[in-house]
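Memo subject: From amino acid sequence to discrete backbone structure tokens
Keywords: amino acid chain, backbone geometry, structure tokens, three-dimensional fold.
Body of memo: The sequence and its backbone structure tokens, given next.
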Amino acid sequence: RYAIPLSEAGYDVTAVEPVHHNLGRIRKNGPLVKAYEGRAEKLKRFEDESFDIVLYFGPMYHLKDLSLRQQAMTEAKRVMKTGGHLFNSYIMNEYSVIMYGFHGHHMKQAVESGMIDQEFHCTDLANDLYNYSRLEDIYALSDYAGLTRERILSQDGPANHMRRVLNAMDEDEFQLFIQY
């Protein structure tokens, strides 16, 4: 999604892709992209301080294991030049809790079934393909890798959709929302 348009815009792009099919599409459609099969947590083919910018638009929500996300962050720091920038994308836990749980009126069922734990974190039962993050998780990963976060950018959240939902909640569901 990003490598080919960036290369067409004149940037020198190196892509690391774990899915063989996707790697083939990059190579076929992006002849200027240097594309390699690999994983974000294992960038050993690249020397220290190789890149001005590192884009992780996938690893932080596809790597389910915390230790793998930590490895990916330390690898990003290693291959990024001093003064460079790392851009990460995440799937935010709160959006799922608010929209699926509360807005969709599934919160009681989601907590009872273990899809959402007692601290309102989405579990693997909620979705076994993605890791859901909270701001504190994002900051902990940055801290672990010794990176300084400049800012968090986000699309609009679901808050403007919640007024009618809150007013329609029964007392038990509303108490869960207050607890959240």
